[in-house]
Amino acid sequence: MLVSFGSSALADRADDVRTQISHIATSLTAGNVTDAMVPFDKSYGNYDQLKNDFLGLTSFQIENEIDVTDEQDTDTGANLTVTWMITLTDRSTNQTEHRTADLEVRLVLKNRKWKIVGFTPIDIFSPLQKQTPKR
Fold first, then answer.
1. Which residue of 23, 31, 103, 111 lies most exposed, with the fewest beta carbons within 10 A?
2. Is residue 44, in this structure, part of any structural domain at all?
């Protein structure tokens, strides 16, 4: 897994926010859906759909590359634009599919932990997707 974070200042708070994104990628690569959902707040509108998509991806070997291309921080929240590149290799056929999408991610501080409350679009994680989305 390769994660790069652009040229933002490396303040502890910014690192904490970015760690949540990295946590998702690392957990997906490990095939651990429960752990991949930890950064998401249950109030996130697509929570169940995303969890089901992540479950559907467990039949693939997954590699992630993430680039945070924009970050806007406030005292209680952060908005990120993340270019997410995912490579899925079917374990039974060894066919490989590359996908790339720009995601808008919204995090808020809840109980002193950063939680994702916005994460769109999520179709890059659909196990049924057959074509690489256009950027």
1. 111
2. yes
Interstrand relation of 60-73 and 2-4 (parallel, antiparallel or unpaired): parallel
* Parent domain of 70: 2-125
Q: Does 132 reside within a domain?
A: no
Buried b vs exposed e over 40-75: b needs ≥16 C-beta within 10 Å?
bbeebeebeebeebbeebeebebbbbbebeebebee
C-alpha 33/C-alpha 83 separation (Å) is: 21
| Domain containing residue 85: CATH number | 3.10.450.50
Averaged pLDDT of the chain: 88
Residue keyed to tokens 């599919």: 97
On the CB side of 9, CA atoms within 13 Å amount to 5
pLDDT tens, position by position, 37-59: 999 999 999 999 999 999 999 99
pLDDT value, residue 17? 86
Element spanning 46, H or E: none
Collapsing DSSP to helix, strand or coil, 50 comes out as: helix
Give this prediction's pTM: 0.83
Mean local confidence (pLDDT), 83-91: 95
